[in-house]
Write the structure tokens for this entry.
Amino acid sequence: MEETNSTQKLLNAAQWPVSMIIIMWVSKLLEIFGGLHFSNWGVWPRHIEGLWGIWASPFIHGSMGHLINNSVPFFVSGLIIFYFYRKIALPTLAIIWTLTGLLVWIFGKPAFHIGASGVVYGMVSFIFWAGIFNRDRKSIVLSLIILFLYSGMFYGVLPNQPGVSWESHLLGGIVGILVAYLFKNREEDSDEWDEDEESDYFFEPDTFTTTKQERYWNNRT
């Protein structure tokens, strides 16, 4: 019964990222086989007509390689968020998606910015920084996993990369940090880990807010 329950939770968590990836692929296939062009629906900074791209651009990709490179990390990071942070998963994704696009519209270079990479950077950043801010065992483990898998993404925030919207990467990463901080006090169900709240820490909650001497005297009393 417990295994069935976990499988159902995993399937439920996969619904949102899979649905969005399907839209990305359908959009690209329509371009390839239907002779359509969606690039003009990207974010065009500081132009009113480019505002639609805040929500549309993550579904649009310049090539199949671009789409494939975004699909895998989008699925992995989306699955992690919707499985382990399911109470805040939708608002987390909505804020990252919208705020990243809006900041690109404000600060991006004058070109059509397309692709889901900004959202991916936001989700990966959220998972990593949630571990830093929350410091519970689950969050720290997820933070280390995402660091191991996607540490190479750091180079994507460097400027002067031809054909790459490094602004989306950088701004998405910053938004991910902000969202992780915003939801740092959120409460999640603990049934996946079967650990009580008091033992679910690698460090004491006040480790980074008190001195070693203060912790020593607190423990003595």
Q: What stands out?
A: The longest helix spans residues 2-34. The chain has one domain: 2-220.
